[in-house]
Amino acid sequence: MSDGSLLTDANLLTDNPALYEARFPDADRLAGRWTEDCLRRYDAGPRLLDMGCGTGRDAAHLHAAGRVVTGADLSEAMLAHARAHHPGPTYVRADLHGFDLGTFDAVVCLDSSLLYCHTNDQLDGFLASCRAALAPGGLLVAEMRNGAYFLGRTDLLDSPKADSFTWQGTVHRSRTTLTVDRTAQLLRRTRVWTADDGSPPVEQRSAWRLLFPQELRHLLAAHGFEVLELHDGPGPRTEPAWREGESPGTTTDADRLHLVARRHTL
Fold first, then answer.
1. What is the dihedral of CA 239, 243, 249, 254, to 10 degrees?
2. How many CA atoms lie within 13 A of 166 on its CB side?
3. Is the peptide bond before 234 cis (omega within 30 degrees of 0)?
4. For residue 246, what are the contacts with CB-CB under 8 A and spacing of at least 6?
5. Per-residue pLDDT tens over the stretch 70-110
6. What are the Cα distances from residue 238, in Å, to 45, 118, 145, 163, 234?
7. Which of 59, 130, 134, 163 stands the most exposed, by the fewest C-beta atoms within 10 Å?
8. What is the pTM of this model?
9. From the CB of residue 81, how many other CB atoms can be counted at a distance below 10 Å?
10. What stretches of 182-248 adopt beta strand conformation (E)?
């Protein structure tokens, strides 16, 4: 830990939604457009649940596309920001480890939100909740890191990644270190934040579950889902990013996974 830094399990970005949107701008609503493309490809009905909706940008885009959207998140700060800045959807507080929010034609879970299910029990709780929430034939659409990418690769682990951006006249800098916890099957993240406004450094820790493609297929089948698509791109966070009209890929080798699964009708 950096000398003089404050250690916290909080998340500076999710606790400060405006800062989050400044750090991850998405003026073109790429994630929302990619999601809508998936939903249209399989003729999903209009009722949609966005689990882990964050600031509400994607939920609002999908609402504008004509869907009846419920956005759910555990962060009250994110929900308050979404209601104020991205109106249209209904926003509710819910835990993705287990939820009961009604019946939907599709459940969406973007930007690795699913990977905050760290344990098998939490994954089972999420998938069981999704199945219960979906009408027969409903879709689960998710986008996340790919655990298989870390088999034999260390490029994301070898050295910290430094980023900086300016928000409201203050330069914010982050230094992020990723490590693999093989026992827990987690990708652990330590991020140290500094700013040029004189505030002390803050060190924050979080983690994502490392899920492998065949493991994910098995879990989905066990919970009554048929996998329609599972690929590493193109998608909203790939390089190059997905573009309108591009077809889903066929491999699962790169650092992102993109999933479309259908709840069995029985």
1. 10
2. 3
3. yes
4. 234
5. 999 999 999 999 999 999 999 999 999 999 999 999 999 99
6. 27, 23, 10, 18, 6
7. 163
8. 0.94
9. 22
10. 186-195, 202-209, 225-231
pLDDT tens-digit series, residues 177-189: 999 999 999 999 9
> Please, what is the Cα angle at 107 between 101 and 110, to 5 degrees?
120
* C-alpha R_g of the chain: 18
Q: What are the tokens at 54? A: 């964050």
CATH class for the domain made up of 22-146+211-263:
alpha beta
The structure tokens listed for 194 are: 């500094």
Distance (Å, whole) CA 54 – CA 79: 7
Domain range 6-16+150-208, its CATH number among 1.10.287, 3.40.1130, 3.30.1300, 3.40.30: 3.30.1300
Domains in the chain: boundaries: 6-16+150-208, 22-146+211-263
Locus of tokens 């655990």:
147
**Contact status, residue 23 vs residue 218, Cβ threshold 8 Å:** no
Q: Which residues contact 28 (CB under 8 A, 6 or more apart)?
A: none
Q: Which of 77, 87, 27, 34 is nearest to 56 (CA)?
A: 87
With H, G, I as helix, E, B as strand and everything else as coil, classify residue 35.
helix
Can you read off the two tokens belonging to residue 113? 């939100």
Pair of tokens at residue 211 = 């899920």
Q: For 5, which DSSP code? A: P
